Amino acid sequence: MFDLQAALAFLTPSEKSLVDKLLMDSLLWMPHPDNVPQILAYASEADILYYGGAAGGGKSDLLLGLAVTAHKKSIIFRREYVQLREMIDRSTEILGSTKARYNQTSSRWVDIPGGRTLEFGAVQHEKFREKYKGRPHDLKAFDEVCDFPESVFRFLIAWNRSTNPEQRCRVVCAGNPPTHVEGEWVIRYWAPWLSEEHSNPAEPGELRWFASIEGKDIECPNGDPFEHEGQMITPLSRTFIPSKLSDNPFLSDTNYRAVLQGLPEPLRSQLLDGDFHIRKPDAPQQVIPTEWVRLANQRWRDRERPDEPITRIGVDPSRGGADTMELAPRIDTYYCELLSYPGTGVPDGPTGAALVVAALGEDLDAQINVDVIGVGASVSDILVVDGFSVVPVNFGAGTKAMEKTGQLNFANVRAEAYWRMREALDPLDGDDLAIPPGDELFADLVAPRWVMTARGILVEPKKDIRKRLGRSPGKGDAVVLANFEEVTGVFFK
What we know:
By secondary structure, the chain is of the alpha/beta class. It contains 18 helices and 20 strands. The protein is elongated.
């Protein structure tokens, strides 16, 4: 029989220290031997892991377990700090018997066995992300990742690094399926596992590699570095490992299943089954119904691009910065695929105008509808001087137009533009539009809300949508702009 104590006597001091460390780590936390998904997630080699799906699969415990056993400097994020209370309580259960100390002011554990630290962070509003700028952690973990805007997530993981070359660095996300459209970016980010439309689906736990090139994620065949425009780029691996309540022995025999079964749909299927594809109810006062956009996407799939000139193009300009310049060419009722250009590549009005002309190709008689608020004025002015047919659209201006029944006014041109899009997409008496599928465009079109004011229908401003999406809804604005057949209202400032 193997005698551990006798064997320890033959170890060197450094070897004995390593064994003590391993024994302490396993005493602190280890995956439950019967929770196979949790074990696979703990051992996964992915640089960016998404673990979860259904409720009760041991997601939060995995994040804590990795932090106290496998990483030196960790941070676990939730969207709001109040949402961290249960996780902090659980961390106290794990670390309470050690010499680790928790500082409530900094929300940070120090002196965790193995020289580790664990911090808890919250980013309720996008501007709060700045306080984590430049702060490296070898584990960046997100609990309920769907609650975060994509832009905040990408910003925070930029500092997933360590000065110790032997310390592994990774991003681990836990969460249920998104319960709102703004969270559906996770389906695009982990598309090989979660998107029904991905052409090459991946198996749970399978590694796929991605590189970001000019602001877009490109799937790569492997993780080998490659050169792009003079820069060496190293793809990072991603994977998704599903888990369910039945995988977690600590909860599978409790009444938690009955609680989940009693929830209304679609929340029941999302939390009990981890269903990422179930249709979500529209938000109250949603301008454009979700199903109407889906129908327009299907019409686009069913049709071929007409062999006719471009009749109209919507232009949402940008100049420098993080926002993209979006162009939405349209051939009668058929929208062509959108053209996107990083803002850093559009430094001035002449460059923006040149991109519009290039998008038109030989179809120089097309109507060009340009958002002229801010940088768009320069693009519009240059195109007018060059003799193009330009409709300058000031979303903030007033209008005397009414919706098609003639009963309701619009508070401004933005409300008119989005309501005209709603009317055009109406499956009963709309314009039979065909709009290209795309996660960002889809989210942009279904995100806006409206309210009735004394001045008429008011659609929420772009800045409010940006807060929910975590980015500019430029694709949606470009498509809406391209829907202006003519200026229907009398604009005034």
